């Protein structure tokens, strides 16, 4: 009898310890996944053309381009696009060229990478009837490579008819890759490249919204930066509004005024309302998006609003119509800490029960 009881105890302990181990592994995996969302998969896109003309990245790759997003700061204006072009199996003794071409209707912007018969490589940008030396280049062991760092306002940024191309909102540019005298359509548009509608922001920043309207935020010790955009078929004609609500009967409203290409801000408290637009910095308003930064604490004659402590709700309005709302905690750590309490309690319960053969 004692031997049977002992075997039962050992079997119970083993099964529950196994369950404990599985639960622990799953819990640690969830925590790790939540903390490593910003990765190469969402920050970059590589497009390859193989020797048979297919769009596949393999040992048979003929030419490839990689678009990589570089976030240089705490605000959303500091985004840089790094474009790297590589041509494979380029003979050393003959002049050769490869290129990335952005094509829309009759407009073509060419990022050209070439070498001479001596193996000296150069890079340039051909746009708006001008040729600009730009980027870095090399020719090593049969690989011809060039890289361009693109920031809005720089000479290498795509230009059409004297104006900067809005790569973040205009996806009607075809991507072509050139290898010698052959051109290949690598992408019919730029909708799948991370810079379009700033797709990379979803995995690298705090994000609120739905498929049609989105708000991203970054926080430093004394500053909040925001980026709001309309991405669906239903888009505002005049105003996109972001409203932060407080449980203390306070409200901060930011209006993106597309018709006037500017922003306005209003603080409402129990004692009244006032214009607090002077607190908005780094403003930028385009046809479908806007970005700005503001201090964590906004103080006016009617009162103050501490964005790090008092925000209890968020609303997004399109031309006055509510399109998204959410109830927020004062800190994202609240959810994390509550999860950890439940997680640890469950672990302790499983561990305790594993030594009770009567359960």
From TrEMBL:
Secretion signal, residue range per the UniProt entry: 1-33
Origin: domain of life: Eukaryota
Sorted UniProt keywords: Signal
Protein name (database record): CUB-like domain-containing protein
């Amino acid at each position: 009898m004692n031997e049977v009881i002992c075997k039962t105890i050992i079997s119970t302990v083993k099964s529950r310890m196994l369950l404990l181990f599985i639960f622990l592994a799953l819990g640690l995996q969830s925590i790790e996944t939540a903390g490593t969302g910003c990765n190469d998969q969402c920050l970059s896109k590589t497009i390859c053309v193989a020797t048979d003309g297919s769009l596949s990245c393999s040992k048979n790759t003929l030419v490839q381009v990689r678009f990589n997003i570089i976030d240089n700061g705490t605000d959303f204006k500091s985004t840089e696009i790094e474009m790297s072009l590589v041509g494979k199996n380029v003979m050393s003794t003959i002049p050769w060229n490869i290129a990335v071409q952005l094509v829309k209707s009759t407009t073509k912007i060419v990022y050209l990478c070439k070498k001479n018969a001596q193996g000296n490589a150069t890079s340039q940008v051909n746009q708006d009837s001008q040729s600009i030396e730009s980027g870095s280049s090399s020719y090593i062991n049969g690989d011809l490579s060039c890289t361009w760092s693109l920031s809005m306002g720089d000479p290498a940024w795509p230009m059409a008819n004297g104006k900067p191309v809005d790569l973040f909102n205009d996806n009607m540019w075809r991507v072509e890759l050139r290898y010698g005298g052959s051109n290949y359509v690598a992408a019919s548009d730029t909708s799948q490249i991370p810079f379009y509608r700033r797709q990379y922001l979803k995995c690298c920043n705090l994000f609120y919204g739905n498929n049609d309207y989105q708000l991203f935020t970054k926080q430093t010790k004394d500053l909040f930066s925001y980026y709001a955009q309309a991405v669906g078929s239903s888009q505002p004609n005049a105003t996109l509004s972001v409203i932060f609500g407080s449980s203390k009967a306070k409200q901060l409203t930011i209006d993106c005024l597309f018709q006037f290409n500017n922003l306005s801000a209003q603080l409402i408290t129990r004692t009244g309302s006032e214009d607090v637009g002077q607190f908005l910095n780094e403003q930028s308003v385009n046809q479908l998006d806007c970005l700005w930064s503001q201090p964590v604490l906004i103080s006016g004659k009617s009162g103050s609003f501490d964005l790090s402590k008092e925000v209890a709700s968020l609303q997004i309005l399109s031309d006055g119509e509510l399109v998204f709302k959410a109830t927020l905690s004062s800190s994202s750590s609240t959810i994390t800490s509550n999860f950890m309490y439940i997680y640890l309690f469950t672990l302790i319960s499983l561990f305790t029960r594993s030594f009770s053969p009567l359960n």
